[in-house]
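call fold(seq) -> C-alpha cells
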Amino acid sequence: MPCSGKRDEKYEPIVFREFFGNSHPVELEIGCGKGKFLVARAIGNPGTNFLGIDRVSKFMNIGKTRAQKRALPNIRFLRAEGKAFLTEAIALGSVSLFHIYFPDPWPKRRHQVRRVFTSELLVLLHARLVPGGLVEIATDDKDYFVAMKKTIAATVELWENVCETVNERILDGMNKTSYELKWAAEGRPLFYAELKKR
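ret:
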C-alpha cells in the first residue's frame, strides 16, 4: 500500500476489516510521534485496533519497533500527511476515536496557516467518525487552545457534547504521550478537550 506520505502520490482507500484482519473498533492518532501513548492503548485494549500516522518516519519507526517487540496484533503505523490521508484513505463513518495530542502550535502569526487544527480538519474528522465517536485533543499552548476553542465553536453544530479541562486528561488518564509527561514534569498547564459526534 503506497502510503509513503509523498504528496505526488495518492493514498489508497483503507478497508479496516482487511487492514487489521477483523472488524474491531478503530482509533486513529494524528501525529503519533514515537507511539508511546498508542502502544500503551493497544496493550490495554486488545479488542480495539489502533492506527498511528505521522509525517516524520524516524520518530514513527520507534513506535513501530515498540509494537513489534511486544508482538501487538492490533496496531499499525503509517507515514502520512493528516488531512490528505483522512480525505483519501479513511472511509466515512469508520473510526471510533481520533487522538490529536500536542500538535505544533506555530506561535508566530505568519506561520499559523500551518496549524493542523482547523475547521476543515474537524469537518473531515466528523464525517469519518462512527455515530457517537470521539475526538480527543491536548495542547500545552494556552493561546493555541484559545484558537482551538474558537475553531470548535465554529463547528459546534457537529458535536453533541464538548468537554474541556485543564491538567486533567479526559480519556485514559493512565497513559500519557511523551510530550505530556515532559510538559507536566516542567509544570506547564495542559489543556484538554473532547468532542462527541452528534
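The longest helix spans residues 57-69.
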